[in-house]
Amino acid sequence: MDHPEFTADEIARGEELFKAPSEFVKGVVSIAALPDEGTPEIAFAGRSNVGKSSLINALTSRKTLARVSVTPGRTRELNFFTLGPESELYLVDMPGYGYARAPKSEVKGWTQLIRDYLRGRRQLKRVFLLIDARHGIKANDRDTMKLLDEAAMSYQAVLTKADKPKQSELQAVIAKTEDELSKRPAAYPQILVTSARTGSGIPELRAAVATLAPNGVVP
Ligand code: GDP
Q: pTM of the prediction?
């Protein structure tokens, strides 16, 4: 139940994909500024403070690729990074949502950006929706899930900070999350369980991303 089974080959492909140095491409604050060369993308979304920056840094083995926030929810842009030996994918770090102390006008702006991006992005292959393993799915995660379902945009839940809860609590959150996702039309049935701190689940998440890379990522 913890980790879906990946073959050794899939794990190796994931490792290969993330071995190449990821580079920052651009930060986008408006839909008009999105890259348009057709490179396939995968995106990471979640509530602010869910551990998204830490997870992206663990995936890419970089300490500072995505800024680990001092103030939660500091990133307000869609940040594009290259992925893979031939930059065959873009990794998109989305602004964290649900940061209560941000000014209303600002929240409105980036909520609209997220909505527009998730609704109409053909090259977006899957959204990895990060969920804090201590808390499970929250109301604003459901808002995002609703948007993704309505857009028929494929998404997969990734539990973060799995080192924090007790084993029994973790198992309960996994079961509850899987149950809720099984009722969601665009949700991928398997969830991934990760910890940026211990590295558990990172090879599996890399493998899941690699299944979405165009052909050519060979170990
Ligand atoms: P973001 O706002 O979603 O980008 O979240 P950050 O990556 O900035 O992390 C938010 C807080 O959670 C920071 O204090 C991190 O040190 C902590 N954190 C992130 N990942 C983990 C993890 O895997 N385990 C634990 N125990 N803490 C984590």
A: 0.92
Whole-angstrom distance, CA of residue 20 vs CA of residue 127: 21
- Domain residue limits at 85: 8-210
Over residues 160-167, the mean pLDDT reads 98
41-50, 60-69, 189-198: lowest mean pLDDT where?
Answer: 60-69
The 3-state DSSP class for residue 128 equals strand
Give me the CATH number covering residue 22: 3.40.50.300
Using the mean position of ligand 1's atoms as its centre, give its distance from the Cα of residue 172 in Å.
21
Q: Which atom of ligand 1 is nearest to the CA of 56?
A: 7
| Inter-helix orientation angle 8-19/202-210, to 10° | 90
Q: Residues with beta carbon inside 6 Å of ligand 1?
A: 46, 48-54, 68-69, 72, 96, 160-161, 163-164, 195-197
- Please count the structural domains in the chain: 1
Residue 199 to residues 116, 145, 193, 196, 202: CA-CA distances in angstroms? 33, 26, 10, 5, 6
Ligand 1 atom closest to the Cα of residue 52 is 3
Distance, in Å, from the CA atom of 116 to the CA atom of 185, rounded to the nearest integer, reads: 20
C-beta separation of 52 from 92 below 8 A: no
